Fold these 2 entries.
Entry 1:
Amino acid sequence: MDELGIGLIGTGFMGRAHALAFRSVSAVFELPVRLQLAALADADIQRAQHCAAAWGFTQAHAEWQQLIANPQVDLVAITTPNHLHFPMAMAALAAGKAVYCEKPLAVSVEQARQMHHAAQAAGVVTRVGYNYQHNPLIVLARELIGNGELGQLVSFQGEFSEDFMADPDAPWSWRCDPAHAGGALADLGSHLLAMARFLMGPVQAVCADTQTVHQQRPIHNGSPQRRGIAVDDQAHALLRFANGARGTVSSSWIKHGYKNHLSFEISGTLGTLAFDQERLNEVRLYRVGQKGFQRLLAGPELPGYAAFSPAPGHQLGYNELKTLEVQELVMALCGQGHAGTDFQEAWEVERLAAAIRLAAQEQRWVEL
């Protein structure tokens, strides 16, 4: 193909992040295809028109179905609330179009299964927005593990915490509705579970506990009326990996002081590797015999970094990770790469999350 038409659904934080990535990727990387920002959709047509003009999209739609039917759109990017991922992705797949969907893939493992099988039947490229895995340092971490730098893997300790729901008077939103979302485990924990699988491989069994700390919230800012909450504020799980390692994961959106604390420590018989997304340009590595951890700083020797900066220590950020994700998506669409989380892998992440919820509900180990 000579041109790839992009259709973006949603104009919130993630919609803007996708738009920035689609606009930046051609300036940063040599792509085998020209990107055309063909259409943008939002239920508020005035907002759709405003964002389309500001972000460089040719057309604006009030109905997402119109965007999918638009013959200029080859790739449908979905950045809406979670419960809309399923109908939008299924419609795009039925139309034979590639899909780039934000995480989590769906609000139930059955929806995720159907999306995976529909993508297989359609034979199109799919990707899900687990952009933290596209950090050049995370790719390096996976290579270090694969090369045996840590020896036999023993443990994974992971956490993803933020504090945007820590205030008990923060108002009710769609994130608090189990039919529309899945609590801290889905919103944050899905990133951590995807990272654990990316670095450690499949999980065989889980045992877990979840808790709703703030069980009611105002129906809107300042309202005396409150609405019950039926999703988790925090989740904790024990993992048994297929490679024999053991692990712990926790996710919370009520942990004061943390803004993007996706962190992990991976320990093996020869060393330990540690990372924190709030310091996303460095990892710490300890090898047996050292007198402390070695700090590995991101630099242009890592694939992807040099496209943004020729100098070490100048740092990448969140939007650069999204641009790296889009670059690998475009290469896959052109038949020149397979990196990134597709619908099959995202379904596996949803299976793992579902097992954690079941283990917490029934207070037992659950085999996958």
Entry 2:
Amino acid sequence: MRSLALRAMLVRALTACSPLALLCATACGTLATSPSWVGGGLAVSAPIRAAEEDAAIEREQALVASQPKQIGARHLLVMHDGSKSKPEGIRRTREEARARAQEALLKIRGGASFEDAVAEYSDEPGAKERSGDLGVFERGMMVKGFSDVAFALRVGEVSEVVETPFGFHIIKRTE
């Protein structure tokens, strides 16, 4: 079923792009992607790819089902020039921001309190006053990359540096 839909989509694309390619594809009765001796083409690779995608979706759903519906966390956010929603004063490059976040993580791993690291390193407005506390939230409330890491942590565990469109985070799960 998927290969028929894929073939129809390719025929529409070829029609828009090249009348000669369409003539060749319809005359041959197939849309070849490689010589037959290569042993593949769309007839073989598309179903395999679809099965791999389906399996990945099932693994993701099983992982989400095994995790709690809500968690509590704190985070430290180091922003850069390209960060979404960054304050006016942020002028560091992405590489400088990553290095700053790594430095903060080293201090935390070395024994500094998470709250002290937030006060020293976090660029998020209001983070210092809240000590980086995000409260309790559900998976869909945060961007996917952040949620995936936060929900995989055990209570009290601190993440590695996590990049999202907002910058570089260090996450500590609190509940």
